[in-house]
Design a protein that fits this description.
Helices cover about 35% and strands about 20% of the residues. The chain is an alpha/beta fold. The chain has 2 domains: about 150 residues, HUPs (Rossmann fold), CATH 3.40.50; about 110 residues, HUPs (Rossmann fold, 3-Layer(aba) Sandwich), CATH 3.40.50. Strands 1-4-3-2-5-6-11-10-7-8-9 form an 11-stranded mixed β-sheet, sandwiched between helices. α1 crosses α6 and α3 packs across α4.
């Protein structure tokens, strides 16, 4: 077998445990281990979330073939590299496994972004985990995560280098970001389950940007008064909405704190609130109230995924007809209805 040529794009799977039996956990957290191995620091976070959601952990390394200009591929050298990669993942699996949870591992061969996106597309319920480092070392995570985001595939857990850990992770404050839409609300059960499992405080954060001001170059008292009334109305409606969310969560376990952001850019305000409250995990939907089917992810979600200094679990909703919403109407008043909605 040492001299067998391996074609790029093929997949070779190895596991530290027997195949998962029927009826076992369906959801897995796939931790992508890059060449510099810094992303190992994301494994503990994957374990914490897998334990909370009843899933498993799989370690993945993708072997990429050299550039075409690097000369022909030596099959013996490739096989040695493949075996070394498998041995390294096996050692990580032994190091991080617990009596209750084994860790599986897998080596894929081909272009990293293609292999990761392909795996995620075949397993839509899984969560792909990346460790985000700064500089050139972080390009792998950024490119692969961006490939999933741009392809509108699966959910992502992005762990920045500031949060890397080698010991079991405990979350004290789990943030969930809402904007009043049913899409954003769909992640609440996931956030609540994690907060319950970690005995953490759950902070429900409503992102309500400032009402836009209209200026025609002249001061107009009526326009200024209207802007103030719109802002005050947004605060009132937002507070009532958060009260309904708290009522929905009452008695379900997590210690919930409701808050509201009303000033400034929604992205920066959210990051600032997380820092002030001491949040150590953010759960948010990939899209929100402004969901556009032509866009793979919302601009707020993409920005937070790239810039947050705590782990971000971006859940891609798979909504079905009949899913519950805290508001009584399927289309919120004041927002533009879908083009095919009844008028």
């Amino acid at each position: 077998m040492a001299g067998r040529p391996v074609s790029a794009g093929s997949a070779l799977s190895m596991s530290s445990t027997p195949p998962v039996k029927k009826g076992a956990a369906r959801m897995r957290l796939l931790v992508c281990i890059d060449d510099d191995q810094k992303s190992v620091g994301a494994i503990s976070h994957a374990q914490a979330i897998a334990g909370a959601l009843g899933g498993g952990v799989v370690l993945l390394h993708v072997m990429e073939a050299p550039d075409k200009g690097a000369g022909p591929l030596d099959p013996v050298d490739w096989e040695i590299r493949r075996r070394l990669a498998g041995q390294f993942l096996a050692s990580l699996a032994r190091k991080y496994r617990t009596p209750d949870h084994e860790i599986r591992f897998m080596v894929l061969e081909g272009r990293a972004v293609d292999q990761i996106c392909g795996y995620a597309a075949r397993h839509p319920d899984d969560i792909t985990v990346f460790g985000r480092s700064e500089g050139v070392e972080g390009l792998f995570a950024w490119r692969a995560a961006r490939g999933l985001v741009d392809s509108d595939i699966g959910s992502i857990l992005m762990v920045p280098s500031e949060a890397f850990a080698t010991t079991p992770v405990r979350y004290a404050c789990v943030f969930v970001s809402l904007d009043g839409s049913s899409i954003a609300e769909s992640v609440i059960p996931t956030a609540a389950a994690i907060a319950n499992a970690q005995n953490a405080r759950l902070v429900v954060c409503l992102v309500v940007p400032d009402a836009p001001s209209i200026s025609i170059g002249l001061r107009d008292r009526e326009l200024e008064d209207l802007h103030v009334r719109v802002a005050e109305r947004a605060k009132k409606v937002g507070g009532e909405y958060l009260d309904r969310i708290k009522g929905m969560l009452k008695g379900r376990g997590p210690k919930t704190t409701a808050m509201m952001i009303v000033e400034g850019d929604a992205r920066q305000s959210l990051l600032g609130a997380i820092r002030e409250e001491g949040g150590d995990l953010l759960v948010m939907a990939s899209h929100g109230q402004g969901m556009n089917p032509d866009l793979p992810s919302g601009h707020v979600a993409s920005f937070i995924l790239d810039n947050a200094d705590i782990p971000v679990l971006m859940v891609r909703p798979r909504r079905r007809p009949g899913d519950a919403h805290v508001s009584s109407d399927p289309v919120s008043r004041g927002t533009r209805p879908p083009s095919n909605a009844a008028t």
